[in-house]
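Dock zinc ion; give full complex structure.
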Amino acid sequence: MPSSVSPVEIDALGVRAEAMVNTLGTISAESDRLVRLFLTPEHRRAADFVTEWMRAAGLTLSEDALGTVRGRLEGRGKKRLLIGSHIDTVIDAGQYDGSFGVIAGILAADHFRDKRLPYGIDVLAFGDEEGSRFPATLASSSACAGIFKPEMLSLADRNGVTLADALSAYGKSRADIPAAAYDRDEAAAYVEVHIEQGPVLETRNQPLGVVTAIIGQTYLNIEFLGEAGHAGTVPMLLRRDALAGAAEAMLLGETMARESKGEVVATVGRIAVTPGATNVIPANVVAIFDIRSGSEAARAKFAESLKAEVRAIADRRRLGLTITSTREIATTPCHPYVQDQFADAIRALGAEPLRLGSGAGHDGQAMAKLCPVGMLFVRCRGGISHNPAEYASPRDLGLAVAALIGFIERFEPDRFARVS
Ligand SMILES: [Zn+2]
């Protein structure tokens, strides 16, 4: 099936998308950087813009108990394709992360406003993907998926405001949260368009990619216990230096990940050193290893090998050791049928549908508990995101919207149900 969107229309969609991204990019709590947190006045203002855009696209509006804005295009059948992303940001964010996915959904739905599709479309603008305000993520999509945990309501932000209080201040009632959940018979699939947030598409010179899975994650909190001592008087061979042990473990983790040939990535982005004085041998170090892989088996194997090697390092260096797993998130596979329809839609635009895993987390992880999910990635400059330098060209944005339109044309909920 050739693309039903002409090159001229693709350019026009890209220009519209960029203008909308720029508009949301101005809505911030701070004048010199982009900060838009869940259930804040900025969230409200962004949600109001999204509401207006959805209305202009001919969608029927509603807003659920977690503040997710929903724009509905009725179809002939009961089944609905859910298209979403988030309008919250990290602190000092770029403009494209999340916002563009919502905008792509609105522009694609607009394309079908006068055509009655065999299924309906709901465009969803979630308010809490980044987890920048409360110490939890995916509250909004969890409510849509029917897996919202009431314990989340007592989580507090930096100022001691709980999620429950913030929701009330936003005009929402916790009693309405269960009603935010979609009916399983109704939700055919959830798809999301997102900037890649990595350099693969740019390196391969392709504008769009099909996501194979949102990759799983393990956090290992590794604590080394040594002995503090004078940096001038304790001979080298008598030391029990916790930081030197941690450094050895970090380099070993890096080597093991490099040797996995792209299967596993491992990072230590944060260490705490006690007592942390220039002239004192470090007594205690906590290093958190962030381990990710699209393969559950590879991630588990890596974590086990790392633990064994770290134990050997600690033994050799006579260091005490505790290892705690503080996060374990399973890989969310993208449905093969959704992947194939996205790939077809990309091919119809004359591009090569590169398949790649998502190293970052997304709302699809929660939505996968409700229905099959899939994602389309858009090339971003330098692979940079969570940074004001985040950028995707209007041409690529236009191609992404056109690919989403192509996906909608190809999507058949019934055929899908048979291959699910
Ligand atoms: Zn995002």
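Observed: Residues 86, 97-98, 129, 194 surround zinc ion (CB under 6 Å).
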